Each structure stands twice: as C-alpha cells, then as structure tokens.
Amino acid sequence: MNRSRAPYTWLVLALTCALGASLGLGSEWVSPVDLARLVLQAIGLESVDPTLEQDRIILWSLRMPRAALMALVGASLGSSGAAYQGLLRNPLADPYLIGVAPGAALGAAIAIVFLGPTTTLGYMTVPACAFVGALVTVAVVYRMARVGNSTPVTTLILAGVAVGAFASAATSFVMLLREDQIGRVIYFLWGGFGLGGWQPVLALSPYVCAAVGTLILFARPLNALQFGDEQASQLGLDVERLKLVLIAAATLAAAAAVALTGIIGFVGLIVPHVLRVLAGPDHRRLIPFSALGGATLLLMADTLQRSLPILSRTPVGVVTAVLGAPLFLVLLRRNQKANW
Amino acid sequence: MTLLRIDSATFGYPGRPVLKDVTLEVQPGEVVALIGPNGAGKSTLLRAASGMLRPSTGRILVEGDEIASLTCRERARRIAVVPQAAHVPEAFEVLETARLGRTAYLGWLGRESEEDEAAVRDAMRRTQTQGLESRRLGELSGGERQLVLIARALAQKARCLLLDEPTAHLDLRHETTILKLINQLAHEDGLGVLIALHDLNLAARHADRVALLARGRLRGLGPPDQALTEETLSEAYDVPVKIFRDPSTGSPVIFAASR
Q1: Burial bucket for residue A121 (CB in 10 Å: 0-12, 13-18, 19+)
Q2: pLDDT (tens digit, 9 = 90+) per residue, A2-30?
Q3: Could you tell me if A91 lies within 8 Å of chain B, comparing CB atoms?
Q4: I need a surface site. Which of A101, A178, A320, B194 has the fewest CB within 10 A?
C-alpha cells in the first residue's frame, strides 16, 4: 500500500514534542534547555550542576515515571483498539468493548468493598483484582460466543455487550453493599490510584511490550481477516487460533492499563480511526501507528490536566475526549473515502 | 493423480440436508462446470470442497489426502477459491490483495520472498491486473474486482481452483476474458478447475465436463453434449427445455421453451 515513511516521522516527532511538554510543564516549569542538560547529566555527558538539583528530582522521580506510564497506557489502548476494530471488523469497537472495562470495574469493586484495602498490601490488591476481573470477563465472553468450532464476530460483540451489562449490574450491587466505599470505587475507575514512581511503569511495560509485539507480528494475518473468516481460512490461516491470539494480546494490554490508571475512554476508539483515515487500512502500519498516536494523545491530555488548575480534579479520560472528539469529527466530515 | 475427489458425500446445514451422496472427481487439465437451479447445492458443494464444511458421510480427498487432515496452510497450497459475491474491504489496494494469496507460504515474520513476489507478479500478469496495482478495491468495476480475486487465487499456486459463479453480473467482455483465462489455466497450465456456473450456455461452451445438480443430487455428469439433454434439463429445472446446435461450433445452445 502507500509505503511512505512520512507518517512514522510525523508520529515520532509528535510523540517527542508531547514527551517534552509533559516533562517541562506542570506546577513547576522546567525549560527545554534545562531538560536537555538534565538528560545529558543523567547519562554522564555533562557534569552534575547542583543548581538544577530541585528540577532533577522533579524530573526523575515525578514527571519521567508519570510520562512513561501515560505513554505506555496510551500505546496499549491505541494498539489494542486498532486490533479490536480490525478483528471485529467494526468501527465502533474499542479496547473495552468485549468486557475489559466492566470486568475491571467489578474486580476493583469487589477488592475495595470486601478486602477493604487500608494497608499497602491491600491497596495493591485493587489493581490486581481489576486486572483479573477484566481477563476473566473477556474469557467468559469468548467462551459464550463460541458456536460449535467457531467464534463469529457478531456473536462476540453481542456476548460482550450482554456479559458487560451483567458485570456492570453486579458492580452496582457490590458497591451498594458498602455505600461508604462508593467514592473510592469511582475514584479508582476514573483514574486508578494515582500511583507514582517507577513501580507501575515496571509492572506495565512487560505486558505492553508483549502485547504490542504480538499484535505487530500478527498484523498481516489480521489484514487477511478483513476479507471475512471464510476467505481468510481459504487463504491458509487458522482463523480461530488467530482470533484467540489477537484477543488475548489486545485484552492483556488493555487490562493491564486499566488496572493501573483506571478506565480511560476514547483513546482506543479514536486514535486507530484517525490513523486509518490518514494512513490507510494496512494493519502492519496501523498497529504501530496507533501505539505511537495513543501515547501522544494521552501524554498531551495528561500534561494539560496537570498544568491547568481548573482541570485539577478532572479525570484524564475526560480530557482525551475533549481533545480527541473535535479532531475526529473534522476528519470524519472531510474524508468521504471508504476507510475499511 | 486425481486433484479433487468428492466421494459419496452427504452435506447439510443443521436440520437441512443440502447434498445427498454426491461423487465427483476433478482431474488435472480439465474444467468441470457445476450447474443446476438456484438452491440445488452448487455453493454448498464448493464450500465443502474447500474444506469449509464437513460432510456428514463420505469423504473429500485433495491430491489423495483427506481434506480435514490437512493444515490450513497445506490446504491453501493445494486448493484456491474465488468466492461468490465476495465481501471485500473497499479501502484495500489491489497489489496488497493479490499478495494475500501468498499467506500460506509466508514465514512467521510475514516477509514476502522473491519467489512470493514472482508468483504475485505472474498472477497479476495472467489476469491483466498489473495496471490496477495501487487502486483501491472500492474503486474497481465488478469485472476488475473479480479479476483481482482470481489473481489472488492464482498467487496461491494451488493445482486445484474452485470458482463460484465468477461471471455473475459481468459484461460480455469480462465474461469472455475470465472464461478464456480459466480454459488456459486448465488446458495449458494443467490446473484442475471446478466452477459453478449459472448460465447453461457458458457451461456448454467452456467446460470439458458438466455436473448437473438438482434437489441435492447429481443428475448428470459428462461432456456437455452428452450430459445436457432436453429431458434431464427439463426435469432438473422444472421448465420445458429445448436444445439446438450452434451451426459454427457444434456446441449445444439451450433455451427455456415458452409453452
């Protein structure tokens, strides 16, 4: 297809700018020159300047891990959104469609209400339960959607919606058992526990790398799947195994992201869409592009949220929607070509 | 060796038997046309022959091996399919679509080798689709789109080719191009072709043998001038049928006689 490398260049450039802004902006301004010097000092190319000590701490213990976490989460949501849209051949699909979000919510609600996380260990069980809840829900959806030897796409979507509704109802039930804990459940779902430092980054990166790597490796078979299950099978693909691998990879990335930062809507829906319009339907490009684009969008939204005082209590998912939706609508109205 | 052997096979969708006790062989170098009224089971037979449906009794052998015992990759290297009224993603480009014909040959990194590229180029040359390479499928005419799907199937380098009504809704020029190509593929390249055709006259003119399906059973099998008789066709289609001879070629010309 259109093999131009230009989108790569633009996306990497945009990601670099977003990263720079994310590291420089916030309650304390760190100038780009200081940023560059601090990076050089960290890798030993410049001697340490004691006057930059405060900025150094801000950069390495606060902003860098935050930016890395946001970039990883954005990359998981973007690439798994692209994979789900391709797999389900549905422009409405996002990383949460077949059960990740309601499953994570249920897991988190159960942990908060029944385990009452007051200790640090108890606190850490919430992300773990959210992660497990998401995976179990998707597994149930996949199992329910199986008809004989195959898992038709439409059945998968319908089962996702039904099981999701059931999980949401169960979440409400669990939350209402302990009304004093409702706030904590909602707070978690909107933004995680705001865990700082490098630990969440370390916890998330293996999942993201494994998932994005797998999705890129299976991008070409995913292209064949755009012609429908039967044609893909006649071209020589084991379609059911392919679906299972893609669902597992996309779900793992999305579930890990949700467990750490809560449900951030819109990134996984809009980023693959926009890039499909700009760069075409080839998943070998669409998946890496969506990872880069998702990271960029989430970094931008997070920077905005941290820098503007009026947004201080607004979840980052709201900011991504405010940033992404107008851009999406402009593209939608300008582009009349088929994108699928 | 027999490329495709359907051996007293019975098929059905749950609760609805579609084909009963069908036996049919396709040899290298021949075009076998599958004809019969709507709903006779032509598409079902092709789906079964490509391994998409399992017979409830009987067997399907591809180059001597039971089709269910082959891996998806091995099956796609032996049988290529041009589906009927195929769903295509409109934004896909022609060259990428043809390249998907090599899916069964790629390693797990999915890079095309020189051999893969040569197979794709050859397939596009045979179908005269080279000029369309960077066009999107949604921009093509029905005939061009069909040629691209044939190119994709040829890129599979399978010895057995199945086509489901490849000329439906096409103009005369594309119809002729496609049927001439199919004849070349069988008679010059030695492929075995099983092709479902709606139009009896096309089948009579272009097939080496015809297989007449009606109400789920094989009602006739043989060279067109032997298998296509007024009695069998009248019975199969449930209308009176008249057959004349084309004075220039001697091939049968078939009409539904108005009473």
Answers
A1: exposed
A2: 456 777 888 888 888 888 888 878 777 77
A3: no
A4: A178
Q: Tell me the backbone φ, ψ of residue B68, rounded to 5 degrees.
A: -70, -20
Question: Bigger pLDDT: B86 or B130?
Answer: B130
Domain boundaries, chain A: 6-334
Strand order in the sheet with B16-26: B16-26, B4-13, B57-62, B65-66
Task: Say how many C-beta atoms besides its own lie within 10 A of residue B64's C-beta.
Answer: 9
Q: What is the ipTM of this complex?
A: 0.91
Mutation choice for A interface testing from B44, B47, B103, B157 by most A CBs within 10 A? B103
Asked if B96 lies within 8 A of A227 by C-beta distance, the reply is no
Q: In this complex, do A340 and B109 lie within 8 Å of one another by their Cβ atoms?
A: no
Tens-digit pLDDT profile for residues B167-188: 988 899 999 999 999 999 999 9
* Chain B contact present for A180, CB below 8 A: no
Window A:216-245, CB contacts with B under 8 Å: 217, 219-221, 223-224, 226-228, 230-231, 233-239
- Report the CATH number at residue B242: 3.40.50.300
Is residue B60 classed as helix, strand or coil in its secondary structure?
A: strand
pTM: 0.87
pLDDT, greater one: B43 or A327: B43
Q: Which architecture does CATH list for A6-334?
A: Orthogonal Bundle (1.10)
Average predicted confidence (pLDDT) for chain B = 90
Query: Measured between beta carbons, which residues in chain A are less than 8 angstroms from residue B108?
Result: 217
What is the average per-residue pLDDT within A46-51?
Answer: 74
Bridge partners of B163, per DSSP, are B82, B195
